[in-house]
Specification:
By secondary structure, the protein is an all-beta fold. It contains no helices and 25 strands. 0% of the residues lie in helices and 50% in strands. A hairpin with a 2-residue loop joins β22 and β23. The radius of gyration is 37 Å and the shape is rod-shaped. The model has no long low-confidence stretch (mean pLDDT 95).
């Protein structure tokens, strides 16, 4: 019976979770040991995906006769650890920061408005919700990724007083519209008969209660307020304000 000489590929290196194809030769019957991590223990070319570094031995024979063996080392490098952090919600007018942690070299590989892609804790500037992905690269070239969902809201608030007292006591002297997350405030004041008394294209100091340089009488006046919110949309508010000296 002919002599059997087992052969196998050289030692290989993989990252944890990967697989590699082994390649044995020499005859027609193959048995691999240990069988853990192998797609098959009786084929000449099984796929190996061990969780730790493992030396595999293949026993090659001619139908079970004249056995010969060869070994191959499958070295397994651990995967780096990466955590992109919990999902976050920011309003579009506040500072926004990503905050990832992990091992190896961390870099953001997906996301809008990232100011520093190689900084695990990076500020972002965006008006859009989206997914941000960070990658960890180990010294052995193993890569792991994680994602975080960022939701961007455009909430705003506006306060329009219903009374003001222009009586020179330095308290509540003007009809002044203010709020959070609003801009381009345009204010128009009418009397009860619809005559325009005051108009300001982009509110500065508010209506002081005068018309033609004279203080208006105690009464209820109509306001029309236009403004732009954080989402870029224009809004309109109408109502009544009482002037009380």
């Amino acid at each position: 019976m002919p002599q059997v000489t087992a052969s196998v590929n050289n030692s290989v290196v993989i990252c944890e979770g990967e697989s590699v194809k082994l390649n044995a030769g020499g005859s027609n019957t193959y048995v691999w040991a240990p069988s853990e991590g192998l797609s098959s223990s009786t084929t000449p070319q099984p796929y190996a995906s061990p969780s730790v570094t493992t030396e595999y031995t293949v026993y090659v024979s001619n139908g079970g006769q004249c056995s010969s063996k060869a070994t191959v080392m499958v070295k397994v490098h651990p995967m780096p650890v990466v955590d992109a952090g919990p999902d976050l919600t920011f309003n579009s007018d506040e500072p926004m920061y990503l905050n990832a942690k992990g091992t190896g070299t961390l870099s953001w590989i997906l996301g809008d408005g990232i100011l520093c892609h190689v900084c695990p804790a990076s500020q972002i500037i965006t008006n859009n919700s989206g997914v941000y992905k960070i990658q960890a690269l180990s010294e052995y070239g193993c890569r792991a990724t994680d994602e975080v969902n960022i939701e961007i809201t455009h909430d705003y608030s506006i306060y329009i007083p219903n009374i003001f007292t222009p009586n020179f006591d330095e308290k509540n002297e003007a009809f002044l519209v203010y709020g959070v997350g609003i801009s381009n405030i345009e204010v128009t004041i009418f009397d009860r008969w619809g005559e325009e008394l005051y108009h300001d294209e982009n509110q500065t100091k508010g209506w002081d209660g005068t018309y033609n340089n004279e203080l208006c009488k105690n009464d209820v006046y109509v306001y029309l307020v236009k403004f732009t919110a954080l989402d870029g949309k224009k809004h309109t508010r109408t109502g009544h304000v009482t002037l009380m000296k």
